[in-house]
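Appendix B, record 7
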Amino acid sequence: MKIGYVGSAFSSISCKPDRGFQLKSYSKEKLYSIVDSNLQCILKTLKFNLKNKITFYRIADFIPFASHPTSLPLESIFQDFSPLIKEIALFILRNEFRISMHPGQYTILNSPKNDVVEKAIKELEYDTLFMDFMGLNRDAKVQIHVGGVYGNKEKAIDRFIKNFHLLPKNIQSRLAMENDDISYDLDDCLLINQETGIPVIFDVFHHSIKNRGETLIEGIKRSIKTWKDHDGKLMLDWSSQEPEMKIGRHADTLNEIEFEEFITRTMESDFDILLEVRDKERSAIKAVQILEKYGRI
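Structure tokens (predicted):
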């Protein structure tokens, strides 16, 4: 089992892997300065993670405006940073890290608007090209939500499936979708999986909010079945509710009691855990200690 978190370990290593700038300041020099800083931070973060037995990591978007019409071609950016990217890739592969990426909330494949879908595909191309350029195995995934309902969930699901089948094969092979807490629950994702083969990332927190009566254990077991050997183990998102906040607000830090209870309840299943908590690496370090206690890492 691997444990990880999202993006920045800023509290521990004082760098950010997703620095950006305003579009009005766009220039090749500005872009390359930021990309270099972000890639250096990704490598520094991975080295920190390895020392702390944190071997699952969601890479943040490190190229500002990567899918914007004004952007330089991604292939040329990757080529210009090839030595640093290859160093990162070698570190990932040698140390058997699990990697994922998660484009922004506006990456909506099932939108009824063609321009929105086109922009979503550009975002997916960016993440996929980066993973392919690094030579990562197919267990490195691009995580997406199904999208909006637009007044008719059945038609929205059909649009998602149709648009998926129009994607290049390299993007298709990288995608994984998560159940959400508002529109598309686990059953919806499993239905889409049957038509597309996209593996389902089981989001524990979202499932606790939106489900059709499946228990946690049932949900995990059903999700595991959607992951083929080349996809790797089930990716599982874990968080809990932040007390006294609106339902759906991710916790600021790991609830160690809830997490340990979760680990003891799921001893029969194997998966990799991505923590979606706000203090990131601090919680991941606590989680590692709990996993070690039960021999799961």
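Remarks on this record: The beta strands are 3-6, 56-59, 98-101, 141-144, 175-178, 200-203, 234-238, 271-275. DSSP finds twelve helices and eight strands in the chain.
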